[in-house]
Every structure is written in C-alpha cells, then in structure tokens.
Specification:
With 495 residues, the chain is α/β, with parallel strands linked by helices. Helix content is 52%, strand content 12%. It has twelve helices and nine strands. It has a six-stranded mixed beta sheet with strand order 2-3-1-4-5-6, with helices on both faces. The chain has a three-stranded antiparallel beta sheet with strand order 7-8-9, with no helix packed on it. It is elongated, with a radius of gyration of 53 Å. It starts with 21 loop residues before the first helix and ends with a helix.
Length: 495
Amino acid sequence: MKAGRCSVALRHRGGVSSEWPYWKQQRVCAFREESRVPLIALPSRTQPPLTMAADDVDVFAHEEKRNLELGGHVGFDSLPDQLVSKSVAQGFCFNILCVGETGIGKSTLMNTLFNTTFENEEASHYQREVQLRPQTYDLQESNVKLKLTIVHTVGFGDQINKGESHKPILEYIDTQFERYLEEELKIKRSLFNCHDTRIHICLYFIAPTGHSLKSLDLVTMKKLDSKVNIIPVIAKADTVSKSELDKLKIKIMSELVSNGVQIYQFPTEDEAVAEINTSMNTHLPFAVVGSVEEVKVGNKMVKARLYPWGSVQVENENHCDFVKLREMLLRVNMEDLREQTHARHYELYRRCKLEEMGFKDTDPDSHSFSLQDTYEAKRKEFLVDLQHKEEEMRQMFVSKVKETEAELKEKEKELHERFEQLKRMHQEEKKNLEEKRRELEEEMNAFNRRKVAAETLMGQALQGSSQTPFKKDKDKKNFFSLPSACSLTSGRNMN
C-alpha cells in the first residue's frame, strides 16, 4: 500500500473486502443490518387505512426479524460503492486542537505532519490570557478533499496565574458543540453542507524538561478528557536521551492513570487494525520531532534537524515516534476519531443540554417518549415559572416602590425642614436689614440736621466777617480827620 492512498478492491457481488479501510467496512455492515427488515403486506386500495396504536408498533419493533434468501441478484450490494463515491465527492473535515506552551513546536509539527507550510503568526510570551486561533485550510490528496482546521492555543502557560488557562479551551469546545446542536435543532437544517468545527483530536504537547508532568498539564487534560480525544506527545524529543525518554514516558503514563485522566486509546475491536493499534497503545505518549528542512543523509534528502554532532531524522523510527503518530492519526484511526467525537463527546454534551431543556427518553412510568407531551409539559413548566417570576417581579416592584416612597417622603421631610430653616434665617436677616435700614435713616436724618445747622452757622459767620472790615475803615477815617490828631501827629514828627 502506497503512502497516502487506500487500495480499495470493490466487488460487484460479494461480501466485505478485507482491503477496505476500517470506516468503509463499518458502513457496509451498517447498511446490511439496515437491509434486514421484515416484509409487511401493504393494504389494497379497497381496504380501509391501517391505524396502529403505540402498543402495536412496540409489538412489531420487538418481533423477531426474518432472514430471507434472494432468488437472484438485486443490486443493493452496490451501496458501498455509492457511499464511497458520495463521500469522496462531498469531502471530509478534520479538526485538530494543539495545546501546549508557546515555542514548544506546535506549528512546526503541523507543517511536518501534513508536509506543507501553514500560515501562522509567531506568538509572544506576553499574552494576558489564553486565546484560541483557528485556521482552516482546503487540502487535497489524490481525489480526496479534506477541510482541515488547526486551532492553536496562543499564550497557554505564559501567565503567572495559570489556574484559569484551561477555561478558554473548554469554552471554545463547548461553543463548537453548541453550534452543531443549533444546526440539528433547526426546522430547515443542512448538516451535510454545514461546516463541522467540532474538535476531533487534541494533541497535548508536553515539555521534555523535568521528570514528570506539570500541575498545569494534569489539570488541563483532566478537564478536557470528557470533551475531546486526547493524544499526549512529548515535544522536542531530541533534547532528551533515549534512556531518559523511556523513563519519562513511563512516569507520564503512571501519573495520568493515578490522576484518572482518560486519554484516547486506539481501537482494538477491528481485527484488521487490532494488532497495530494494540502495539501503538504501548508507545504512548509519542516522542516527536518536527522539521521541514531537507538534509542530505547518504544519497537522499530527508527531513531532519541538523546538529554539529549529526542529524535527527524525523521519519526515522529509531530517532523519534513521528511516523507512529502520523500512521495512527491520519492513516489508520482518522475516521475513528471523527466517530468518537460524534458518538461519545458530542452525544454527552447533547444529552446534558437536552436534559437541561427538559427532554428525556422515557418518563418515570417507562412509557414511550412523546415529543408533543414533552413540549406541553415543558411549556406548562415554563408558564408556571413565568408566573412565579412575574409574581416575584411584582412583589419586588411593590417593595421597591414602597422603599422609594419612604425615601422620597424622608427627603421631602428633610427638604421641608431645610425650607423652614432657610425661611427663619431669611426672616431674621430681613429683620436685621430693616433695623439697619432704620438706623441708617436715623443717622442720615441726624446728619442732615447737623449739616443744616452747620450751613446756618457758616452763613452767619460769613455775614459777620463781611460787616467787620467796613466798620474798621470808617473808624479809621474818622480818626484821621480830627484836629487834635493832626497836631499830635505833627508834634511827634518835629520832635
């Protein structure tokens, strides 16, 4: 069998070929089981239509099915061919979640795993919280189309407080389940055309440093094991010696078992892959090395990591477990991972969600499930809850109104007291102003009286001062006109 191709030997008439892949054999068996149904005679046109109660349907359901032999070739043995053609034409989707610390080699391993280079931005170590960055690519190998989604956990393990690092991852996984469930519950749904973003596999990258798992690794894998298929891988395995790597694998598996962490186990029910899957289960966790560089070893170019002392070949099983991981993940168990995601993890989420919504398969009396009865019961329960909530809201509203009225009355009382106080202060200030105005008027009147008296006195003084010089001049004139005055004056002059 060539790498990347499936050799399918289809026979027109016959059983299931042992060369078919595991998922095709399962689908063929499912179709054959569905074809074994009892034959029921249909009523003629003259007969009245049949009305069967639920008990009659249960009788037919528990009736033993009869195996009939065909008298010749019918043609429904071509259903596997039709299924393969339809699946190939429709294409497949596969979603990988890479969980690990920044710089541990997640992007390099994805590039090596799919033999291509995906666009990815380098993340820094300074993220405040974990962010999930999904990227979808359309790949094609031969005539098989694959819609691949790779989800990187940016900033995982870079925070000082790592206790909440797993929550964004859980929220993302639940969000994808919720989207698929919403599509299922639609009246007009198209599940075949809907892009399925549910995570099919989680590659958990373990740092090769140390001698055991970190507490962050144990807590995160414990939270994720019920949500997604987990395959632990030891990243950068070329930094650890062979003996130390074997001891680290044993220590990691013992810690996972002791802490109750359920990782994905490769299925061993199918005889075609039971031997290889049983062998690969003993090699978990895989110690991987990633590289996209081509190095010349001997006469051929191989993917390897070149060191001064030599090279580590990625596809050499003596150097690392990369080939084992690729075989188990892509070439043998890819369809089983998709089925486990849908049948186990998604069904668990769907069941819990429907139970929260009030749906159940059987009632306490073990009667058959009725969607209408469940809807009516849920509707009545919703109406009762709505009435209770309305009553609670009404009582709350009444109490709030009473509290508000009491507060308003208290504030009104305070405002009234404040108003009375301001009124009294205003009256006192008005009284004081009236008194001051009266005093000022009295002072003005007194001042005016004094002013009038002063003006009167000044007038009298001015009048008296104006009459006094005239009298003096008259007396002086009379004095000089007297004879005695003259003779007296002349005598004094002669002497």
